[in-house]
Amino acid sequence: MAVRGRPRGFDAEAALDRAVEVFWRQGYEGASLTDLTEAMGINRTSMYAAFGNKEELFHRAVARYAEADMAYAREALTAPTAYEVVESFLRANADALTRADRPSGCLSVQGALAEGGDSGRIARFLAGSRLAGERALAHRLARAVEDGDLPADTDPHALARYVMVVSEGNAVHAAAGATRAALHATVDIALRAIPLRPAPVKSGRVPAGRTRAAGADRPD
User: Fold this and answer.
1) φ/ψ bin of 27: left (φ > 0), alpha (ψ from -120 to 50), beta (otherwise)
2) What are residue 116's phi and psi, to 5 degrees?
3) DSSP-assigned states of every residue in 125-191
4) pTM metric for this prediction
5) How far apart are CA 164 and CA 77, in angstroms?
6) Closest by CA position to 176, among listed 96, 98, 114
7) At a CB cut-off of 8 Å and minimum separation 6, what does 30 contact?
8) Residue in 160, 162, 167, 144 with CA at minimum distance from that of residue 217
9) What number of H helices and E strands is found in the chain?
10) CB of 126 within 8 A of CB of 111?
11) Environment class of residue 212 by beta-carbon count within 10 Å: exposed (0-12), middle (13-18) or buried (19+)?
């Protein structure tokens, strides 16, 4: 007959949320077990029992971060046009990177900048996590090409990579103290590079305010 284990006596989700913040502020290498357990309000034995070792805890923390703090990235993919997908993602990202109630920057990006004594496992794990998001965006942009929402010669993978480079660059600058307004100014410039479907031209006339070369269905 199986023996039921003792209850943990703590809120595992709340403890994980506190671990997320420690890793976010201090990075994987900088977060000691003492820092983590004190923030989580548990001892090491309870941490190991509930979450595994430090690396396993970090994996759980990143998954929690992706679920909660990165929900806007999934929501952006549901926007009706490719331009709106990219704008929604980058605007929400700039806001998230500069929230007053959270550490500045991005857990995934900050954690990957420093190479520690883990033979690069953490950096590779975080790179894989970011790549999954890039692939999801590329898939959505590829559908936009198929639907005629983006020009037929658009490379959705290169475009998705460009968007992620902007996002990750903003994360680095946010962690260094860049303001929300500064990040949005960068987004303004980045959005100019998004290729758009040419606007239809009737009777050889060019719509007011557009040129044949640059005419496109870009939101004002």
Assistant:
1) left
2) -105, -160
3) HHHHHHHHHHHHHHHHHHHHHHTTSS-TT--HHHHHHHHHHHHHHHHHHHHTT--HHHHHHHHHHHH
4) 0.81
5) 14
6) 98
7) none
8) 144
9) 10, 0
10) yes
11) exposed
Q: One digit per residue, pLDDT tens: the chain, 220 residues?
A: 343 444 456 788 999 999 999 999 888 888 999 999 999 999 999 999 999 999 999 999 999 999 999 999 999 999 999 999 999 999 999 999 999 999 999 998 876 665 555 668 888 899 899 999 999 999 999 999 999 999 999 999 999 999 999 999 999 999 999 999 999 999 999 999 999 776 665 555 444 433 333 334 455 4
Distance CA 106, CA 164 (A): 12
Query: Which tokens go with 88?
Result: 């929604």
18 touches 41 (CB < 8 A): yes
Type of residue numbered 188: D
